[in-house]
Amino acid sequence: MLRPILVLALLALIILYFRQSPADSSPIINKDTRLKTAHNQQQQQKQPPPKYGRTVAVGDLHSDLAQTLAVLRLANVVDADSNWSGGYDTLVQTGDIVDRGPDTIAIYKLFDKLRQQAKEAGGKIVNVYGNHEVMNLGGDLRYVTEEDYDSFGGRQKRREAWDVKTGWLGQQIYNNFNITHVQNGHTVFSHGDMEPEWARPIWSRAHATQEGGMEETCKRVDAVKKALGVNRLISGHTPQYRTGKILSICNGGYMVIDVGISKYYGGHLAVLEIIENDDGTQSVYALYPGGKRLV
């Protein structure tokens, strides 16, 4: 009699097991799911970041905060709350943030905030000296507006802020701005034009104005590219406000990205975008509010 009783008891246990409610069995399934999810997350975290993100560049901003935010959003590196959204991207700004408008403080503080946020996200902010930064640091204030003075609390406080040794803004510019910048070994950014004599990279417009004609201009451009071992030279400084478009000459070897972003130059929006290709080449685009096109 004992054997049939044991068999019946075993059958009862099996029936009881399969009658468990979904709620009873779900913790086992959820635990497995959580373990798999955690494993997948660990695997994703082990994946290295991309070698390069995009490079996006914008030209002269001239104290116009609204247009600055508009062009950075066009570049897709700033979100609706004016925080960094560019991930691993590099943003290059080719100088002349200051003068002609009232928003000097706001724009420099914006870039200071974005610089830290980009670094934390794996991206980068690059600021290049413009001639107007140099002028203000040197006391040449001919293009400063009254609204700009007022935003600092008067002329004396503005002078104090721009002091390179003790001023908050002078120190920010001195510590974070470059005269030129070479991006990923293939593109040189400067405010003015890089010439073969290495003179006036903040002031020159020799290439932008095709000084000596197009043939001579491209010879100069090619000489600089060869000396530096790069593919292209990018400048600001010479506003293309009549067209509102990025100027590209010498088979894409030289470009001007100052399109007159500030409303004081027409309020045109344009971004230069450089994409790194797997074969080591680059695809270069101009981004406009109406679309994107190869340069």
From TrEMBL:
* Pfam families reported in the protein's UniProt record: Metallophos (PF00149)
Identify a single GO molecular function assigned to this protein.
hydrolase activity
The keyword Glycoprotein is annotated on this UniProt entry: no
Q: Where do the Calcineurin-like phosphoesterase domain residues begin and end?
A: 54-241
> What Gene3D superfamilies does this protein map onto?
3.60.21.10
Q: Which residues form the signal peptide?
A: 1-25
Tell me the keywords, alphabetical order.
Answer: Signal
Transmembrane ranges, per UniProt, are none
InterPro entries per the UniProt record, alphabetical: Calcineurin-like_PHP, Metallo-depent_PP-like
How is this protein named in the record?
Answer: Calcineurin-like phosphoesterase domain-containing protein
Organism encoding this protein: Linnemannia exigua
Q: What is the lineage of its organism?
A: Eukaryota, Fungi, Fungi incertae sedis, Mucoromycota, Mortierellomycotina
